[in-house]
Amino acid sequence: MSIKKLIRTVPDYPKPGIMFRDITTLIKDPIGLNLVVKEFCSRYARLRIDKVVGIESRGFIIGAPIAYELGVGFIPIRKKGKLPAKTIGCDYALEYGTDRIEVHSDAILEGENILLIDDLIATGGTAEAAITLIRRCGGVVVECAFVVDLPELGGRKRLEALGATVFSLKFNMKINGKSFRTIWVNDEGILNVINQLSLPHNFEIIALLDVDDVCQAISNMVVRGAGLIGATAGYGMWIAATQAPSSDLNSFNTYIKVQALRLQATRPTARNLAWAIERQLGKLEAGATIFEKIALLKAEAEAIADEDAEFCRRIGQHGLGLIEELAASRPGQTINILTHCNAGWLAFVDYGSALSPIFAAHDAGLPVHVWVDETRPRNQGASLTAWELACHGVPHSLIADNVGGHLMQHGLVDIVLTGADRITRNGDAANKIGTYLKALAAKDNNVPFYIAFPSSTIDFSLNNGLTQIPIEERSGDEVRLVSGKLTDGSVTTVQICPDQTTARNWGFDVTPARLISGLVCERGVCSATESGIFGLFPERA
């Protein structure tokens, strides 16, 4: 069952232009409600939560069963005058006037870890007041959790400005109704990844048990995509630490540095790989003992993964604005988006870069359609992007790589969105081979061309992508051979050229900044210029 399909969308509520998410249709469904509770409990079961606090009134419906499953107490926050005993309260502003919420003064003890729950986050006024109340009681807000986030109303940013961590259920990264990241450590402490070589015909999870496994997974593209490569390398450094000699610190450090060089050599183009390894080497130096170093490397690997997911979520919200502008300029018309290769959640830890705005637009009720380049020779568009869009219910059409220019000439592409594997400080972008040709066609036909990426993709040391970015050349067999499903359902590989024909296989090309309409990252949208990039990252200037 899809939780998303149980949530009703109400247009123009509470004001024109807002697509409101109504969960009453969800909570009346026993299976849907049970799924929501399980989703939250799977996130918080291993955290120390002392009490769950729910905001009147749907926060009671969601929060109480979560508290029960977690084995902790439930505290209601109610409107003024609804609680019988002594209370403390907090006033907060509404569009017209003010309101007040209250909690019993003895409900929360000093130092207790509190999980704050409500059905949705809109402008964030009530949740902000609830955080204030909890903190006045001496409680520590571990996280603010919501079923639905309405990011266009600014509530999440409002709470984050208070130093609160905000989580909302996401409904797009699911396989057979279960949420997945592309990489995670399971309950047994084993690193798991989705085997992307088996998609789209089979979904397979594999374990990476040692550094050899990690290196092979990156090199052979079991995992691929800039963000995921970086996250995998981060976990690889932790695995190296768990298997390093433990007799003395020098041997331990030397072993890990050797493994770092192995990991870095697996894929030369993506900046995220070296960035993650450099970040982990910094943590290695911070630890005083072997035990502490191992713990620091694991914590940093998880931080890298969490950061990648969060930055991609933000990319979705910033990129959504571009699609909303197009939709506003042509009411009722479908927005046709062309993308190349795969820059969805499979290429990162979660959400994706170029596909993140598309998922956000689809979820916001905007009429979008995606032209999916097959992306030879590995066909990541056909096998991965199309699979992601199909899983999420986004309308899309698979096209041959050379069709994009024809579509643009006939007005059938409104915007091009791609990812990137490395961005230079002047705005040049390396991405999957063929991206440059899309940019040329877009420029010739006045189609906006945007690149989406997390900041870990930026190489601030480079100022000329064409001469300075290393371009990986892979095996020619990736061009000579192609895999697919036969009519009997089996998957096989066939050769598409004469036996005596050799092939060359460059994995990436560089799109000059002059062809790029703008860059989208977790901090916003900017021009593909040095001044534009440093405007978002002034600390790097």
Q: Mind explaining what this structure looks like?
A:
- By secondary structure, the protein is of the alpha/beta class.
- 37% of the residues lie in helices and 23% in strands.
- The chain has 17 helices and 27 strands.
- The strands form 7 sheets. The chain has a 7-stranded mixed beta sheet, with helices on both faces.
- The mean pLDDT is 92.
> Numbering strands along the chain, what is their spatial order in the largest sheet?
5-6-4-3-7-8-9
Amino- and carboxy-terminal Cα gap: 49 Å
Number of helices: 17
**Biggest β-sheet, characterized?**
7 strands, mixed
Helix proportion: 25-40%
Low-confidence stretches: none
How confident is the prediction overall: mean pLDDT?
92
How would you summarize this macromolecular structure in one to three sentences?
With 541 residues, the chain is of the alpha/beta class.
Which SSEs are present, and which pair or pack?
Blueprint: E1 8-11, E2 19-22, H1 24-27, H2 30-44, E3 51-55, H3 58-70, E4 73-79, E5 87-93, E6 98-104, E7 113-121, H4 125-136, E8 140-149, H5 155-160, E9 166-168, E10 174-175, E11 178-179, E12 183-185, E13 191-194, E14 205-208, H6 211-219, H7 226-243, H8 249-264, H9 271-286, H10 290-329, E15 335-339, H11 355-363, E16 368-373, H12 380-392, E17 396-399, H13 404-409, E18 415-418, E19 422-424, E20 429-432, H14 435-444, E21 449-452, E22 458-459, H15 465-468, H16 477-480, E23 481-485, E24 491-495, E25 508-511, E26 518-521, E27 524-526, H17 530-536
Parallel strand pairs: 3-4, 3-7, 7-8, 8-9, 15-16, 15-18, 16-17, 18-21, 19-22, 21-26
Antiparallel strand pairs: 1-2, 4-6, 5-6, 10-11, 12-13, 13-14, 19-20, 20-25, 23-24, 26-27
Helix pairs in contact: 2-3, 6-7, 7-8, 7-9, 7-10, 8-9, 9-10, 10-11
